[in-house]
Amino acid sequence: MDCPTRSEDSRRRLALSVSVAWWVTCAMALVPAAASTTAPETADPANEEESVRRSVAASLDGVVEIDQVRGTVVVSGWDRPKVEVTGRLGRDLDSVLLERRGERVLLRVHESLRGASADLSIRVPRGARLEIESMSLDLRVTGVEGGVDSNVVSGTQRLTGSGMDSGVVRLETVSGVLQVDGLLGELVLLAVSGPVGVDATVRQLRVDTVNGPQDLRLQGVRRAHVDSLNGPVALNLLGFSAPAVVRATTFNGTLDLGLGAGTPALIDAAAKHGRIDNQLGGDERRREMSGYQAALETRVGAQEDLEEPSAQVSVSTYRGDILLRPLR
Fold first, then answer.
1. Distance of CA 137 to the CA centre of its chain
2. Fewest beta carbons less than 10 Å away: which of 9, 82, 260, 282?
3. What pairing do the DSSP bridges indicate for beta strands 276-278 and 255-259?
């Protein structure tokens, strides 16, 4: 087993995210200096918040784009062919743009002062696909089956999957939290800095992080690729959709693999600078690998005598320990 590597696509996307984070930091550093040259504004209590209620006709399987909305947004799917937006606009938010452009619906909040936020509830057709871009947003998505592509620099993104046949869900962040549960067909999570959590039945999974912990609890997985540059990974596999292939790597951080009772799997583990603690038992075979401090292969589960187990699981770390344990 080679030292953990990252795909070129991941490197490009993460490099871009780091660049965005750097520019955001520089911009924020200039705000106090600019603010000091202007007199503070006096808040008008009558204009602190403004309620909003808007709707527009939409395709049942079109695209809903939420662009540069700051604050809190809750999106839920329903069976009506329209998008409805309700909630409140914070002070210094001018207006809401909600319009249909062919098969797409665009939602954008115009702000007169940078940093103003909104608190919105958005209902979209259940079969629609969401496309979301924001610098700072707390997002909650439920009941959307057409897929989600969300890129939020900071804030918490929470999503509940609506079915194994739903569209691809892709969540990205620079310094936020990603949390997913429910039923999903394909899930992609990319984070530069921040925790990632999954407790879901998912057919295909990809998780790629630079800094921060991963806490993953998976059921029914067929393909999973988990990669962490710096941070611990807890990977709990309750069951597979055979034949399954699971790969998890860390460069600097511990890797904790938990396996459901009686789940047949062939496990390959290697730690270049660390130890392997195998509490799963099974038909273990310690291996010698050049440059690696510890390496083993073990076959576990109710079908240890089968030539082809229902899952092949590969875990490796460059600097850190590996724990293989049964789930209670």
1. 14
2. 9
3. unpaired
For residue 200, list its beta bridge partners: 182, 218
Last residue of a domain, one of 127, 146, 164: 164
Work out how many domains the chain is built from and give that number: 2
Q: How far apart are CA 304 and CA 117, in angstroms?
A: 56
| Domain boundary, last residue among 100, 131, 164 | 164
**Per-residue model confidence as pLDDT tens for the chain (328 residues):** 444 444 445 444 544 454 444 444 444 444 443 343 344 444 444 446 688 899 999 999 999 999 988 899 999 999 999 999 999 887 655 678 999 999 999 999 876 555 568 899 999 999 999 999 999 999 999 999 999 999 999 999 999 998 999 999 999 999 999 999 999 999 999 999 999 999 999 999 999 999 999 999 999 999 999 999 999 999 999 989 878 999 999 999 999 999 988 778 999 999 999 999 999 988 888 888 888 999 999 998 755 455 566 899 999 999 999 999 999 7
Domain carrying residue 228? 213-328
- Tell me whether residue 5 is in a domain: no
Query: Both tokens of residue 73?
Result: 């947004």
Say whether both 227 and 314 belong to one domain: yes
User: What pTM value is reported for the model?
Assistant: 0.84
CA 167 to CA 309: how far, in whole Å? 29
If asked whether residues 220 and 306 sit together in one domain, one would say yes
C-alpha torsion 236→239→241→247, nearest 10: 30
Q: Check whether residue 224 and residue 146 sit in a common domain.
A: no
Cα–Cα distance for residue pair 143/123, rounded to 1 Å: 10
